[in-house]
Amino acid sequence: MADVVTGVEPGAHSTPLPPGPPPLGAVRRSLREFGLGLITLGVIVLLFVAYQLFGTNLTEARNQSSLARQFQAAVHSATSIPATGTPTSPATSVAGATAAEPPVDVLPSVPPGGAIEHLVIPAIGVDKYVVEGTNEADLRRGPGHYIGTAFPGQVGNTAIAGHRTTYGAPFFELNQLKIGDPIELTDLNDRTWVYVVSRSPFVVSPSDVSVLDPTSFPQLTLTTCNPRFSATSRLVVIARLRGQAARVTSPSPATVQKPTVLPGDATTPRTAVTNPGSALAGANLGQGQSSAWLPSILYGILVIAVWVLTRLAINRTRRWYRLGAYVFGIGICLIPLWFCFENVVLLLPQSI
């Protein structure tokens, strides 16, 4: 019987067929992993927003508790030691009686980052301890007293900066203050000085440094960022002291020097210069701390590595145990993620 014609010569090799589409299961797994990656990225963004709004508040609250203990200990130490100031010669009153003037106040000596004042603004619910210094490390603890400006109750310009967002946002509602609202400052001698807002809150450009100029009368100046969640300009509140100013053993710092501490720049040396507005003019508006890039990247890589290991472990875990693996893996990821967020916040423009 004749051979059946097949269209292929005897001994010839058949042409290999082109590869077919990948199995449907592999496509589904790839799409699932891609979608899960996008969801994870969205969750991280939401967690970062939550950290800025709430997580930084926890850090500031812990720092405020420490400052409160430090302030109370300093006040107790100051009030338990007899005053060393020598009263001046008696002054003759209108009725002919003589009365000695109050003792001279001793200027406090507080290192940068230490508690120096207790600030209370009843109208907007502010009750914070003020640190000495205005760099970012200081402002994460609370409002910061510009180094070199007057102390509470002194003749001169007492200047304080504070966050309007993040880290407790002490000056979040600073714009709501009105003329006549009281502002209380308690110093380390346990004396409370009451200032009264003398001008409606106003906005200045970053180049306007006159708000830190020395004054010939006791003045309080509060500065923060404007608008909220931005740092393109500054909101300023000015208040005048109610009552008599303090008498000190040396001239008010506001009349002899001004600081070069730059808010947001932790590496700036704390040396004094004669330019009255140098502290405000040099603030890192629109910038962050470049030194935070490396730790941010390293912690970010660590988060990714832990998450990849978590996913590999989940894929090899029995179905009924995967939920526990997810919870455990996510909990481990949150630890380096917290430190990553702490450094990423430092990369953002300052809000003071």
Helix content: 25-40%
Measured distance between first and last alpha carbons = 100 Å
CATH superfamily of the largest domain: Sortase
The parts where pLDDT drops under 50 for at least 5 residues are 84-100, 250-277, 281-286
- Provide mean pLDDT, rounded: 76
SS-based class? alpha+beta
- Count of the domains: 2
Report strand %. Answer: 15-25%
List the helices and strands and how they pair.
Layout: H1 24-80, E1 91-92, E2 98-99, E3 115-121, E4 126-132, H2 136-139, E5 144-145, E6 156-161, E7 182-186, E8 192-204, E9 218-226, E10 233-241, E11 258-259, E12 272-273, H3 278-281, H4 293-315, H5 322-347
Parallel strand pairs: 4-5, 6-9
Antiparallel strand pairs: 1-2, 3-4, 3-7, 5-6, 7-8, 8-10, 9-10, 11-12
Helix pairs in contact: 1-5, 4-5
